[in-house]
Amino acid sequence: MKRVLLIIGGGIAAYKAPDLVRNLRAQGLAVRCLLTSAAEQFVSPLSLASVSGDKVYENLFDLTDEAEMGHIQLSRDADLILVAPATADLMAKAAQGIANDLASTTLLATDKPVMLAPAMNVRMWEHAATQRNLGQLKTDGLHFVGPEKGDMACGEFGFGRMSEPTEIAARAASLLDDDADSAPLKGKKVLVTAGPTHEPIDPVRYIANRSSGKQGYAIAEALAAMGAEVHLVSGPTALGDVQGVHMHRLETAEQMYDACHALLPLDIGVMTAAVADWRPELCADQKLKKTETGLPELTLRENRDILASLGGSKQKPSLLIGFAAETHNVEAFARDKLARKNCDWIVANNVALDSGIKGGVMGGDENAATLVRQNKTEAFGQMSKVETAKTLAQRIAAHFSAAEKS
Ligand code: CTP
User: Fold this and answer.
1) Would you identify the CATH topology of the domain 183-405?
2) What is the pTM of this model?
3) Residue 224 C-alpha to ligand 1 middle, in angstroms?
4) Does ligand 1 lie within 6 Å of residue 306's CB atom?
5) pLDDT above 90: residue 49
6) What's the CATH number of domain 3-176, 3.40.50.1950, 1.10.540.10, 3.30.70.20, 3.30.70.2520?
7) Which of 9, 57, 371, 387 is the most exposed place for a label (fewest CB within 10 A)?
């Protein structure tokens, strides 16, 4: 049986807590309640103890409880921490990492998913500080249900009503279900390369390409969301770090080659980077001056192919995926690359200017990828790069689940 730790904050909606406990239990969940001291003004610990069938926790400094069960264990014992009602005060503490009572300490100590059902006056909800805290908590990966729009106990109307107990209980149950199914790549070590590389000519100039890194970053995020240990090896991009992913930022193709090989052994390699094919043979120590040298001659050397080197390695990842940018004959060229680089799948992008993709594939937010495998070709169709990433991640998860069953 899955266990929910219900943290009840001090707001008028706390009177719905016994009903929420009943609904959670009706979903087949075991419930343990933790009351803030303000919540005790709205709901009695005794009524919660009787509907939950468990002891109710109230005070951080209750030494007997600390001896029986410390706040760390209280938070770890649950599969989900649900905060309902989540007051503006509790949200602010959680967003800032403040831990000065049992509820806030438990929220800071947990390693389990946390869901909040906010309830407060509409002005408090709309206040810039609360909205800032909401943004921070979402970035930190906390889940939200509500608030709803409607009449409030204080006589005002707007967003701030706590969602109904039936709704909160259903969302909690579905989050716990997803959680079990949502980590199909747990235990898999994944390399994703992304972005362009910069190949220096002198301290201020370089050769580069128009890759934005968006597709690779989205893939890293989608695979991490499935529980994989993801290493994102990225050339220079304007994108921020991906939460929950190990970032390895570098500049040149040669640095990328070394960083990828240093990560072996790997279960999965997804090579989206637009690695520069060539680099200037020499990088000048000082800025080249046009007067001194006239027209400089750039002698280029070929960069080592990272994908092909992994494909030919004794430690080849069990699923190695390359990317191909094609303007025509998309599938035929992709198949040729599949064989040449000894990879398992190729994701081919049509980068022709007349491909119909808004903003173009390079740098844009959309893609129309085709997944080419040894004996199967699948067109994903035109969709956002985030959707493309999720679709590819699902195919990868399905591949491993089929392999593990056979
Ligand atoms: N790749 C790599 N290391 C390189 C060059 C390419 O890992 N030095 C990888 C890319 O990350 C991508 C695939 O190889 O997964 C693309 O191969 P590439 O031969 O560069 O294909 P295109 O860019 O499509 O160019 P072309 O059609 O000219 O071969």
Assistant:
1) Rossmann fold (3.40.50)
2) 0.63
3) 24
4) yes
5) yes
6) 3.40.50.1950
7) 387
